[in-house]
Specification:
Number of strands: 6
Distance between the termini: 40 Å
InterPro entries: CheY-like_superfamily (IPR011006), NreC/VraR/RcsB-like_REC (IPR058245), Sig_transdc_resp-reg_C-effctor (IPR016032), Sig_transdc_resp-reg_receiver (IPR001789), Tscrpt_reg_LuxR_C (IPR000792), WalR-like (IPR039420)
Radius of gyration: 21 Å
Order of helices and strands: EHEHEHEHEHEHHHHH
Strand order of the largest sheet: 2-1-3-4-5-6
Keywords: DNA-binding, Phosphoprotein, Transcription, Transcription regulation
Protein name: Response regulator
Oligomer: single chain
Length: 211
Amino acid sequence: MSDDQPIRVVLCDDHAMVRAGLRALLAGAGGIEVVGEAATGQEALNLAAALRPDVVLMDLQLGDGMDGVEAIRRLRSAPTPPRVLVLTTYDTDADITRSIEAGATGYLLKAESADELYAAIRSAAAGRTALSPPVADRMMAQLRAPRPTLTDRERDILEQLAQGLGNREIARRLFISEATVKTHLGRIYEKLGVDTRAGAVAVAKEQRLLS
């Protein structure tokens, strides 16, 4: 892309009003051109293949079907992949981590100003990481936070939890008693700061404690 050519952008958001607002907003930015709009992840893939944009502005929640993270992964695996800039209201550690791991160049919150959006699109088009300040703060905090230390047996049980197994099934698979499974679960919950099975799996995935 030469300096005198506009940055070609495809919008992907399942809300038509949001897309219309973004299109109007970007019309006021010099050097940025919206070349297509998608309401689903599949539409974004089709438009990216046909139009070859420089940047896809991607929401994470896209209703039924493919979510934004899977769309990012597929976009980035294309022969001529566009840069993908997440634009969302969600800033959980899991959403941020999954998006970056899928190949997103940046992660921006919808609460940011127009100037910050313009700058993020230009950074993404140039291949530079663009993060909202709150997102950057969360990522730094996550990197600085020490990971919980789990025993090998606790990791084994977490792996089984992630597969959706119940206590009895875990006990049978690991050749231990259900009482032992419950004891290990209590220790896992305490170390991860959660009180449910789903919470334990979610935190384990966020902190990459699962293989």
